Amino acid sequence: MARKTKEESQNTRNGILDAAELVFLEKGVAQTAMADIADAAGVSRGAVYGHYKNKIEVCLAMCDRAFARAAEGFELAEDGPALEALREAALHYLQQCVESGSVQRVLEILYMKCEQSEENAPLLRRRTLYDKQTLRITTALLRRAVSNGELPATLNLHLASVYFQSLVEGIFGTMAWTDRLRNTPWEDVDALLLAGIDTLRDSARLRHAKPCAAT
What we know:
0% strand
């Protein structure tokens, strides 16, 4: 039997991951078996095991692919107004996640279909790592905004980061699962993000008693 080329192997992996997204979304991680993924992908179980040891490996690969796609086409500006960079990053994230497709499906699986269990522990750790990375990016931009004089020196960086990240996640949920923003959704999303930035500037609830370190 002729060996598969790298392109053929990658196509097989992509087909397996495409199918896994649909199966995990429908059944949840705990109730999904490798046989379910193989059936949905239209390949043998041996073909799935040839690429992944178990369903958790499949799910991790699926998550890594989706997060790589979410980052495509965007580079975080290393200088210039930090709050504008924060707004642009949030808009890019939302545009990637709200569009019906791989990124949205994987986020729904990770946050709604990944049950708390020992078997799912690697996935739960990956979810926690993703949360920490996004919070770290937000905090770095807010720290830069303080250093630039765009935000008060007394800003509570941790609380402000949690606030803004929660705002973005709430907007995502509104766009993905409701029809509250029907007529001009992206204009409304931008207005909500700008309102959040106004809150970062003005809310006394997001302040330390003493100036925070801006470096």
